[in-house]
């Protein structure tokens, strides 16, 4: 048998599992793994400035190519710094393996330097958290870590490596090893038949595509079903991009925040909803009595415990999204020829044409919808976008178009500030082999930008170009909006001097470039400049757009009670 250092075996496993890039920060307790990365080769490593940044980079990498992202840190605070990233990946079903160093196993009970029980800390926000106890287990622990991260509902795993165990020699031959087999979650045929019966019986059905459709690569199968049965399709925020928003069958997004007026209207008129890979998040449903109404629900999810978690569906189906949709299409073809559009599709089309929101504002300060109008017109469907949490996430969900799966990346349930810069790095690195010239764009807020701004140094050091478009209202805008019912505007204004923090100078301090825009007519020119500048410099470029300071996004407690704050199309502004 072949003998090698345990960590060399780990690196061989990582490579065979499809890992070509890792994001991390070396420290004393994790150096055996770094020595193996150097000796074995084949994995590019980017040295981050903060371990949370490493997790978000691995997250963006995994969301883009469907692989398992890898983040590395040392012992103690390195692991605790990763918890936000693990939580984000757990919440959004992102496969990831985080590797932490640890003090020697004989010292863990003695409060040794940077010895913390990271396994117990990480357990609630991972699918599996484990400490390596025996060196000979190393390759098999990592095989199981990758299987666990991928199988069923994907998610993160943490593997903790005590220093003394990581330094040992083991027997392992990578030439005769391979990833562990995954077990597909097939739908039970009678439930597929019942779902089809319910769809065909409905007069006004909708398909609701959640993030599970993207994860399972089910976009083509979704389109086939929708077009064959002529059923309009809505997406959740996590499902954005699963269905082309220019399709005549696209019926928008329902919700109390990231939604369209026509999306809510279409949903309220529907009599059946086939939800595939969606978890009925509270910002989507709002008040459940309104959301449920008299309509029937079919809920399809790969995770059995999701069924009935928020409310009991009329029919539950445990299945991988793609396998369910393919089975549904196959059975539909047996029942008869493809159906024509019908009155319901025409009705959804009328709602779409009648119930829009304005974007053509020419006033200054710039109104946020105008920025998204410029984004939609400037970038093609093949562009990759990342965005995080705040008013700009809501405006993005309402106004920005997405056409392709895995091209609109958003942190949904956890909503960590600062996700965009490291995620954009991960997205860009994920494309280095398949589409190295693809454009990556991060849409950020001024506050979120500063949470992980240090990761700009990573992008500059490793020549990772992308465009950042900042909507800067010099406020904690979402919290200011949330304070309105309290009659407050307290501790949310972060304005000082002329513009507050000079974000263009921050970019320059990291060796990058940027421009500030204050007039709506200058937004498009600045975007065009930034795209060329990112390509020229191979570094991030910022377009800082100064928007109206106290603008509000449409929102409300229920999908039939969303308040509009801006003039609607046809109204006089």
TrEMBL record:
Pfam families in the record: TPP_enzyme_C (PF02775), TPP_enzyme_M (PF00205), TPP_enzyme_N (PF02776)
Q: Name one GO molecular function term.
A: tartronate-semialdehyde synthase activity
User: Where do the Thiamine pyrophosphate enzyme N-terminal TPP-binding domain residues begin and end?
Assistant: 6-120
Which Gene3D superfamilies does the protein's record reference? 3.40.50.970, TPP-binding domain
According to the entry, every stretch annotated as the Thiamine pyrophosphate enzyme central domain falls at 192-328
Show which residues constitute the signal peptide: none
Q: What class of enzyme is it?
A: lyase
What residue stretches are annotated with the Thiamine pyrophosphate enzyme TPP-binding domain?
Answer: 389-545
Record-listed E.C. numbers: 4.1.1.47
* Keywords tagged on the record: Lyase, Thiamine pyrophosphate
Family from the record: Belongs to the TPP enzyme family.
UniProt name for this protein: Glyoxylate carboligase
The protein's organism comes out as Streptomonospora wellingtoniae
Gene encoding the protein: gcl
């Amino acid at each position: 048998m072949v003998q090698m250092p345990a960590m060399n075996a780990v690196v061989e496993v990582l490579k065979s599992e499809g890992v070509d890039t890792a994001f991390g920060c070396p420290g004393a307790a994790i150096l055996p793994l770094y020595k193996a990365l150097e000796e074995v080769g084949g994995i590019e490593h980017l040295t981050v400035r903060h371990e949370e940044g490493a997790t978000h980079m691995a997250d963006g990498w995994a969301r883009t190519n469907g692989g398992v992202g890898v983040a590395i840190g040392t012992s103690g605070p390195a692991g605790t710094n990763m918890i936000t990233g693990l939580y984000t990946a757990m919440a959004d079903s992102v496969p990831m393996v985080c590797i932490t160093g640890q003090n020697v196993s004989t010292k863990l009970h003695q409060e040794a330097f940077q010895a913390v029980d990271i396994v117990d800390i990480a357990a609630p926000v991972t699918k599996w958290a484990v400490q390596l106890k025996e060196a000979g287990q190393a390759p098999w622990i990592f095989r199981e870590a990758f299987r666990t991260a991928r199988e069923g509902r994907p998610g993160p795993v943490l593997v903790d490596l005590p220093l003394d165990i990581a330094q040992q020699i083991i027997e392992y031959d990578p030439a005769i090893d391979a990833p562990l087999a995954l077990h597909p979650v097939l739908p039970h045929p009678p439930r597929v038949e019942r779902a089809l019966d319910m769809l065909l019986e409905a007069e006004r059905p909708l398909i609701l595509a959640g993030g599970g459709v993207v994860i399972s690569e089910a976009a083509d199968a979704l389109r086939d079903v929708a077009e064959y049965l002529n059923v309009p399709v809505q997406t959740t925020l996590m499902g954005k991009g699963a269905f082309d928003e220019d399709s005549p069958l696209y019926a928008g997004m329902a919700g109390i925040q990231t939604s369209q007026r026509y999306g809510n209207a279409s949903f309220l008129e529907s009599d059946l909803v086939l939800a595939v890979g969606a978890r009925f998040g509270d910002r989507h449903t709002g008040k459940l009595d309104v959301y449920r109404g008299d309509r029937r629900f079919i809920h399809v999810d790969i995770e059995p415990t999701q069924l009935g978690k928020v409310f009991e569906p009329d029919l539950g189906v445990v299945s991988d999204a793609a396998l369910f949709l393919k089975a549904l299409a196959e059975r539909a073809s047996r029942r008869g020829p493809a159906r024509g559009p019908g009155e319901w599709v025409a009705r959804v089309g009328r709602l779409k044409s009648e119930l829009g929101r304005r974007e053509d504002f020419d006033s200054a300060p710039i109104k946020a919808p105008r920025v998204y109008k410029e984004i939609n017109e400037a970038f093609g469907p093949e562009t990759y976008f990342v965005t995080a949490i705040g008013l700009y996430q809501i405006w993005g969900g309402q106004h920005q178009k997405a056409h392709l799966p895995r091209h609109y990346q958003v942190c949904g349930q956890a909503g960590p500030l600062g996700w965009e810069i490291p995620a954009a790095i991960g997205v860009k690195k994920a494309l280095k082999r398949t589409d190295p010239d693809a454009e990556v764009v991060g849409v950020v807020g001024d506050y979120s930008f500063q949470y992980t701004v240090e990761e700009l140094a990573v992008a500059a050091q490793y020549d990772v170009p992308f465009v950042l478009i900042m909507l800067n209202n010099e406020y904690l805008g979402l919290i200011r909006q949330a304070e309105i019912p309290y009659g407050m505007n307290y501790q949310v204004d972060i304005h000082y001097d002329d513009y507050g923090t000079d974000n263009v100078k921050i970019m320059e301090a990291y060796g990058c470039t940027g421009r500030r825009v204050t007039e709506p007519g200058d937004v498009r020119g600045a975007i065009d400049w930034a795209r060329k500048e990112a390509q020229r410099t191979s570094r991030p470029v910022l377009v800082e757009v100064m928007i109206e300071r106290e603008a509000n996004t449409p929102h409300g407690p229920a999908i039939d009670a969303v308040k509009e704050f801006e003039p609607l199309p046809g109204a006089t502004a």
